[in-house]
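Study this pair:
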Amino acid sequence: MKHQNLALELLKKILNDEIRTRSKTNLVKGKALLEMLETAIKKYNNGLLTTAEIIQFLVDEVAKKIREHDEREKKLNLSKEELAFYDALAENKSAVEVLGDEKLRIIAIEVAEKVKANATIDWTIRESARAKLMVLVKRTLTKYGYPPDMQQKAIDTVLKQAELLADYFVSGEI
């Protein structure tokens, strides 16, 4: 390729924009993809990868992860917001081992429904609304036997994910 640096910058911009777009609806996957991209760019900047190697890595690995994420949405039969909550809950590896994909899928659907039903314009600001949502999420996790060792972290991640989706829920865009 004649203009490898130009191709790299273009690919980096395209992937960065795609990741930023995904980060608006899926906190966990957006963060993971961004870390993967940043790690690869650091290796390139430190001279550990050539321009051709970084381009190949970005096409093979980062783009592949993006495609896999899209396929998971279809495979698990979840909407975008449900998959976002699924990812937030599945961040705890012990929960995945104990509950399995199907039970996490059910929890994610229920959590998404409860968050959507209780999202109001100012719920991210009002402490009472946040507390109510936190209780609803905690009850749902407990109901399905979510491992207590990481339950609080899961609740925090779910609430952050809910904040991310709050505007979409209230406006009805999703």
User: Anything to note?
Assistant: Residues 93-118 form the longest helix (26 residues).
